[in-house]
Amino acid sequence: MGVVENTDPALDEKAVIETAEAALEDIASIRREIGTVIFGQQNVVEQTILAVLSGGHALLVGVPGLAKTKLVGTLGTVLGLTDNRIQFTPDLMPSDILGSEVMDQDADGKRSFRFVAGPIFTQLLMADEINRASPRTQSALLQAMQEYHVTVAGTHHDLPEPFHVLATQNPLEQEGTYPLPEAQLDRFLMQVDVLYPEIEAERRILLETTGLAEKQAAPVISAARLQEIQALVRRMPVSENVIDAILKLVRSARPGNGNEETDRHVAWGPGPRAGQAMMLCVRARALYDGRLAPSVDDVRALAEPVLQHRMALTFAARAEGMHVRDVIAGLVSNMSGD
Length: 338
Hints:
It comes from Hoeflea poritis. By secondary structure, this protein is an alpha/beta fold. Helices cover about 50% and strands about 15% of the residues.
């Protein structure tokens, strides 16, 4: 006698809700634990966690000394991930990241090659000051980010699961930096701008980080549990009006789609990958906020981190002192007026 599958949608929906509620509790615990070590910077913490929950990579942009490195290390601990840190420098070679083949010789004098894995073979990679490395080295990392494997001496090596890169970048006005090419920037799910802390957060930093013992974060979930939550994010329903809002926003950021401001100021706009990133991130943000479905407000809130590194202004717009953020703010305000 065959087994009859249960196809009752009500039961399926109940199971999803129970799974989501358990995830909400875990995410709340993650937020609390990170808050004991990272003071203030709520937007930075939120957006970085959203990138990981969405299964992607994030680029953290800010001047030195704003705890970007500490945030990444804390996140690795709290999420139960193995982590490595690479300090990018102008003389860093691709093999320093990916690994290389070395020659071994046994007792009989027989020689063979052995692969020595580089620091990229970890679950959470901190790429510190990525724009200080040469374009060749940047490309080696960013290709691995896209394909989740590396090829050394013709041999394919899979990266661990999950695999996330959280890269930090100094603003391009600083000396000794190489700007990331646009196609490579697109591989980051989000660009997170790290600003100076508010005065109360900075006061707390002064008090709590200059004593004899500095508080360390504790693990909250495991890597396997993180993968379960990432799978849940992809299963969350997205309503038609949210999908329409994403499409309208992304398409309005491209020249030639009927938006006069965009046509005048934007040289090129975001591709379909921006919409894919937004679909994942709005779901993750809903879960992060304790909701079971995203809203148009999530689209508005994530417009800047998802779009800003996927657009470029015309020379004339830059000469006028405009920034991509100004254009995105205008597009978001048009959404609000609908």
